[in-house]
Amino acid sequence: MENSALLSQGGIWFLVIYLASLILIGFAGKFASKEETLKDFYLGGNGFGVGVLFLTMYATQYSGNSLIGFAGSAYRNGWFFLVGVTFMIAIVAGYLLYAPKLYPISKKHGFITIGDYINFRYNSKLLTYIVVGISIFALSNYMLTNLKAIGYIMEYVTGGGIGFTEGIIFMAIIMVIYETLGGMRSVAWTDAIQGVLLLVGVIIIFSVVMINYGSLNENTALFLQNKPELFHMPTLANQITWLSVLILIFFGISVYPQAIQRIYSAKNETTLRRSLSLMVIMPLLTTLPLIIIAIIGSAHFPDLDKAGSEQIILLMLNKLIHIEGMSIVITIFVAAAIAAIMSTVDSAMLAIASLFTQDIYHKQNPHATQKKLTYIGKIFSWFIMAFMVVLAINLPSTIWWLIQIKLEILVQVAPAIMLGLHYKNLSHKSILYGLFAGLTFTLVFLLSSLPSKPFGFHAGVIGLVINFLVLYFHNKVAVNKE
Amino acid sequence: MFKFSFLLLLLTIPFLSSDIYFGVPLWVYASLGATTLYALVLIFVIEKKWNKLKEK
């Protein structure tokens, strides 16, 4: 890529003002804080109304990958990536498997983390630590990939004015400042701004592309000439992959600890229901437009490699730079991408800090005061962010693939959360045996020379089936013995 | 079981062609239509059947 800044002087100032406003929101969150307790810091006190709750759920679920990675996938796979819309909707169906039952229990018993529920339901320290450990692993992955993405974006849009390393450090400092100032309040409020930016950005860019590149219908001849394969029906192998991805995301993303924390932080049941209803619509307003943009882009820029395909939207907008006002649209796109990444990183960091403080430190120090626990959580946030920044800058690409497997690992905790609410007789032993069996199968296939997708399915999906089977039969035997 | 009904979306694909209408293959209309229907069912369930889900 050429070494010229993508953002105009005005665009860079817009970005600076936007980032500065996030720090101000951090202070607003601090002043709104009512008490120094973990509940106030990690759940925003008595909870959020529909506006903030919906926007924080939306911004957290749609990461930088949704904006850049999804477009790249749609560019490479064509209409086959329509599965992206389906799986983003299916995540909400995943919430419905547990949220209606978990929410009232969480309010009654004052849960803050996923570990609180596991410990309450199964009364097993070992199971709680394993679930917390897996959650921290998955969240760390989320932070790492998004921090790396933000470094690349900053370097690219400033034409190297801000380097990859400086970009990561600069953005990490901003996030950790507003997070430690106001906790969940600051994160949710900044998420609200970031969510609006993301939605408005996608709608504006979609309109600009439609006006300047033409509709799908107008581009048909160009498609058939440059990318006819994008119209092909999915093969059987494609459909198996499709099914596997749907299962993985349905059970995996719906149990993300930061998502569960947002369910806990709803002001009341009505607030939660309205937010989830709105979340169902968002893939049609966010993922679908991105897929259509990328498919139109593939007709106009047919020969991009994988890295190039992820910049398809920027390439399309950049080609229109001669049109008046286009620099504003590019600024909006960059701000939306940065917003999507920041809202994911800050939520993951908050969730990791709460898991460490509540489920590890508090368990080891049961007499620690709430004030001290909140302080420990803040210190840990700085520590974890510094650690992730070092890893994001220095992690060699040869082991980068290791952290791509997070969802296949995380999905193994789904039975503990979902089934525990529905089956009272299910013991922690059944869950543990199932978890070990599922994890072992998944890790053996992912870490050895065996195929990572046996029979076309992700190893984590087959691991999940084994997990379910083992816990089912163990539970059946245990119940019969009694 | 409705929550898993997204898996049925796959059944629409093998029976439809990739003939293009208004720039979009026929199977995409079916898949998108089924996805939209699935979204509407989910919203109905969230708004009207929440208490049933709590009791299940």
N- and C-termini, Cα separation of chain B: 12 Å
Name the beta content range of chain A. Answer: under 5%
Task: Give the integer mean of the pLDDT values of chain A.
Answer: 89
Beta-strand segment tally of chain B: 2
Strand order in the largest sheet of chain B = 1-2
C-alpha Rg of chain A, in Å?
22 Å
Q: What is the number of E strands of chain A?
A: 0
Assess the beta-strand content of chain B as a share of residues.
Answer: 5-15%
The assigned structural class of chain A equals mainly alpha
**Helix proportion range of chain A:** over 70%
What is the end-to-end distance of chain A?
A: 68 Å
Low-confidence stretches of chain B at least 5 residues in length (pLDDT < 50)?
Answer: none
Largest sheet of chain A: none
Provide structural commentary.
The complex is a heterodimer of chains A (482) and B (56). Chain A is mostly helical and 482 residues long. Chain A is built from 22 helices and no strands. Chain B is 59% helix and 7% strand. Chain B is rod-shaped. Chains A and B meet through helix 5, helix 6, helix 11 and helix 13 of A and strand 2, helix 2 and helix 3 of B.
